[in-house]
Design brief:
The structure is a single chain. By secondary structure, the protein is of the alpha/beta class. It has 2 domains: 99 residues, no CATH class; 174 residues, Glycoside hydrolase/deacetylase (TIM Barrel). Helices cover 45% and strands 17% of the residues. Strands 6, 7, 8, 11, 12 and 13 form a 6-stranded parallel sheet that branches. The chain has a 3-stranded parallel sheet with strand order 5-10-9. A hairpin with a 2-residue loop joins strand 1 and strand 2. Helix 2 crosses helix 3.
């Protein structure tokens, strides 16, 4: 193939343009690095940044980690340059993930969040229609959210509850299928939840160490949770004094428990805790996504 003079000239022009861009970028970087504001940003970055906290494995149990924070030098510089001076309040941070995350392990139980924030999650196992509307209405009235672990057989027969729960900003997970853990039926229930709610189940529920549940959910890359506190009755008195940041509180759907639920929610809030979904509680990000 003969390379014409015009082709050579075009190649030279492109090379010149690329070199110009490269040189300009390098020149800008050099100017920024010598700018007093950039120097001050760099000098203060180490003191402002926070290291990520790794997830912890303690035997068969797993505690979520926590993202770290690093200063975005370029964005911080641009904001402060517009402002005209260095200002701590204008530092721009980025989150960095832990080197060891809960998503590196699915063969461990999770019984609480990391406890760094004030978050607590309420979870409700659901196998029948008893008090379902009641709990949804209480959560709406109290301006809070929870996570529902719903049996797949119940979902098949009562599709409206899952959709209503998610429409009210609650979280829906799969509990079992007619109290069994057949893989095909469990996966079918997951697909049903996806179709009904446009959300993807991430967690399994066990009341105690249960290898059948753990193995199934690990195979499906889902985390198995065991509640920190299980409330069968007298939910206010049994929770009082036992609350701590990161708690996962399981509550049975009974008449007496529903009568006390508002009192318990108020107590949790008065203690300075924030009620969130399970996914928010176990998320290692610093800010809710």
């Amino acid at each position: 193939m003969v390379i014409t003079k015009k082709v050579i000239e075009a190649i030279l022009v492109i090379a010149l343009v690329l070199f110009s861009f490269y040189y300009t970028e390098k020149a800008i970087v050099l100017l920024e690095s010598n700018d007093p504001i950039m120097k001050e940003i760099k000098n203060n970055s180490d003191a402002k940044e926070e290291k990520a906290i790794n997830a912890k494995v303690e035997g068969d149990y797993l505690i979520p980690g926590y993202n770290g924070l690093v200063v975005n030098l370029e964005e911080s510089f641009l904001k402060m340059k517009s402002y005209g001076n260095y200002n701590d309040a204008l530092l721009v941070f980025e989150e960095v993930t832990p080197s060891i995350s809960i998503d590196d392990y699915y063969d461990k139980y999770i019984s609480s969040g990391n406890g760094i924030s004030t978050n607590i999650a309420l979870v409700f196992p659901v196998t029948t229609s008893t008090y379902n509307d009641t709990v949804i209405n209480i959560l709406k009235e109290m301006g809070t959210v929870a996570t529902f672990f719903i049996d797949g057989d119940y979902i098949d027969k009562n599709t409206s509850f899952a959709t209503e729960a998610v429409a009210s900003q609650n979280e829906v997970e799969v509990l079992s299928y007619d109290n069994s853990y057949d893989e095909l039926l469990f996966k079918a229930s997951i697909d049903k939840v996806k179709t009904l709610t446009s959300t993807t189940p991430k967690y399994c529920y066990a009341t105690y160490d249960n290898e059948e549940i753990l193995n199934l959910c690990s195979k499906l890359s889902m985390h198995t949770i065991i509640p920190t506190i299980k409330l069968e009755n007298n939910i206010y008195s049994n929770a009082k004094g036992n609350l701590r940041s990161g708690s996962i509180i399981s509550i049975s759907l009974t008449e007496n428990n529903m009568n006390e639920l508002k009192v318990l929610i108020n107590y949790i809030k008065q203690r300075g805790f924030t009620l969130v979904t399970l996914d928010t509680l176990l998320n290692e990000a610093r800010y809710e996504k």
